[in-house]
Amino acid sequence: MAEKFTYITLEETASVLTKEGIIEQLKYLGVQKGMTLLVQGDMKQLGTVVGGEQSVIEALMETVGFEGTIVMPSFTFGLLDPSSQKKKVERQYWKAFRNGLEPFDRRLSVEMDEDTLVQQFLRNDGVARSYHPIYSFAAWGKYARIFCDKHPLHFGLNQDSPLGKMVDFNGFVVLLGTSYEKSVMFQLAKYKGDQFPVRIISAPIRSGNKKEWKDLLDISYDSKKGIKEAMEYMEEKKVVRTTFLGKGCCRFFSCREALQAAVLSFSCLESL
Fold first, then answer.
1. What are the b/e assignments for 208-237, b being 16+ CB within 10 Å?
2. Distance (Å, rounded) from C-alpha 42 to C-alpha 48?
3. What is the three-state SS of the chain?
4. Residues 225/226/232/235 CA torsion (nearest 10 deg)
């Protein structure tokens, strides 16, 4: 069972952050040597960080040590077929779009509109990446290869994905300036009931020396539905610990607690 934390909110720290200051706040949150962390961050909310994204990454690495593991979502929604893009692409450009997209590449494929923390993380030595054209995860540390191995192409955020392994390894979520709604951990709860509608999406992968558009079974990625209720449930149970880095509120909580709260919230919503 996850340790129960008192819900604490601190005043904002100094506007200029150093690696040492970030390490201090991570330890305050409860991050310890040997932990497995699912990290998401918004550098814009953290303000001025001496050394930028790399300082944040090194602070995380030094805090968990070589016995720990750091995992970050490195999603590439930009590789979705144009018919499924969140930003609508006019039908007349679909053929050019499909011809121009390169197949997913563990080293090169990034989401240009996403925060730069993940992009910098991928540049570090020893960082592995799972093979999924949409829902890949990057990992560093003791169990990095285990987290990135055998990522299912169909239902890419299910219990056999790196998200499911976060629960199996009793991992913790660290949100650095990002909201609950952006935490991917809650997406796993959609696979714990019968409430999900199945859809088919397509993305380019490499098959031999050729590009192939692969049809994938998936669930609609809704980053907001049910999350507010899960958040309120977790804070009521006092299992979230918080602090500030710059103007960004940072949160630390158990993956198992998040899954339990989200399953309950989604179930309640479906019963209405």
1. eeebeebebebbebeeeebbebbbebbbeb
2. 12
3. CCCCCCCCCCCCCCCEECHHHHHHHHHHHCCCCCCEEEEEECHHHHCEECCHHHHHHHHHHHHHCCCCEEEEECCCHHHCCHHHCCCCCCHHHHHHHHHHCCCCCCCCCCCCCCCHHHHHHCCCCCCEECCCCCCCEEEEECCHHHHHCCCCCCCCCCCCCHHHHHHHCCCEEEEECCCHHHCHHHHHHHHHCCCCCEEEEEEEEEECCEEEEEEEEEECCCCCCCHHHHHHHHHHCCCCEEEEECCEEEEEEEHHHHHHHHHHHHHHHHHC
4. -100
- pLDDT per residue as tens digits for the range 123-166: 999 999 999 999 999 999 999 999 999 999 999 999 999 999 99
Q: Which residues of 137-168 are buried (b: 16+ CB within 10 A; e: fewer)?
A: bbbbbebbeebbeebbbebbbbeebbbbbbbe
Which residues are within 8 A (CB) of 173 and not within 5 positions of it... i.e. 6 or more apart?
37, 38, 39, 40, 183, 185, 251, 252, 253, 254, 255, 258
What does the pLDDT look like over 99-129, one tens digit per residue?
999 999 999 999 876 679 999 999 999 999 9
Say how many CA atoms lie within 13 Å of 203 toward its Cβ. 25
pTM of the model: 0.91
> Angle at Cα 235 formed by Cα 230 and Cα 241, nearest 5°?
120
